[in-house]
Amino acid sequence: KADDIEWNQRKSIAFFRGSRTNAVRDRLILLARRSPSQLDARYTKNQAWRSVKDTLGEEPAKEVPFEEHCNYKYLLNLAGVAASFRLRHLLLCGSVVLNVGHEWIEFFYDRIIVKNRGRSFVESHLRVDDVLCYWRLLLKNYSKLITYRIQRVSSFKRIL
Hints:
CAP10 domain-containing protein, 4-stranded parallel β-sheet, Rossmann fold
């Protein structure tokens, strides 16, 4: 989808969709309400949503497929209760991605090079097989550090 949208055809505003998970996101949503010509940021429903109180007094926005994020020149990535797992999807758009918050990081953040190379990095190094390889290696090395005998919980399903 990103290749189908020329830069000059994209909307010249910043865009964010996500659930309400921290105060930084609240400030962004409130700013967007004051500056809708510069920022399109709204909350979507999450599992905890009960009323408009949970989305700062407005009805939740519909979720927007990642492909449609590519219609914007500027995409915002904000950490929630952990690292925002949408970053690798946003980088594929070829848009300018503003990554806000450094409390939580994913394993590949230090490898991302600014400019047009974020998309290339995702396509080359964050394929499903690459991520599975990372986790396999991480768990294999972690298992070497465990000094106690692991007892398997019988109700857990063995996956490997």
